[in-house]
Amino acid sequence: MSTTSKYLDSLRPWSINDAHELAKQNSVRLDGKHIEILLVAREFFHDYGFSPSMRPLCKTITNRLGIEKGRSVYLNQLFPGSPAKQVAVYAGLPAPKNCL
After folding, report:
1. What is the CATH topology of the domain spanning 3-90?
2. C-alpha 64 chain-centroid distance
């Protein structure tokens, strides 16, 4: 199962356990660092009505969790490849519109 094929068209109930289960299916292990990013992304969606692409994700994380965690290098370490896309998948959010 590819993470890029798991985007939702509409939001459904979501829990941290859902994120862990999906990650497990993709041979990924999420820890507290991942979960705090997923929760920030969900807050962003709640505030703005869309999933954050990379730049707004970094800015929002910087504002809520500090500059070190808002850096794209940090996010790429946690979610290699395309952090905004992976965050959306594991956070149970629709695909970010500005991500390829």
Report:
1. Arc Repressor Mutant, subunit A (1.10.10)
2. 15
Query: Which residue is catalytic, options 8, 65, 78, 99?
Result: 99
The model's pLDDT over 37-86, given as tens digits with 9 standing for 90+, comes to: 999 999 999 999 999 999 999 999 999 999 999 999 999 999 998 999 99
Domain boundaries in the chain?
Answer: 3-90
Give me the long-range contacts of 37-46 (CB less than 8 A, separation at least 24).
37/61, 37/65, 37/69, 37/75, 37/78, 37/79, 37/87, 38/87, 38/90, 38/91, 39/91, 40/64, 40/65, 41/87, 41/88, 41/91, 41/93, 42/14, 42/91, 42/92, 42/93, 45/11, 45/91, 45/93
- The question of whether 99 is a catalytic residue gets the answer yes
Give CA–CA dist 74/51, Å, rounded.
Answer: 19
pTM: 0.86
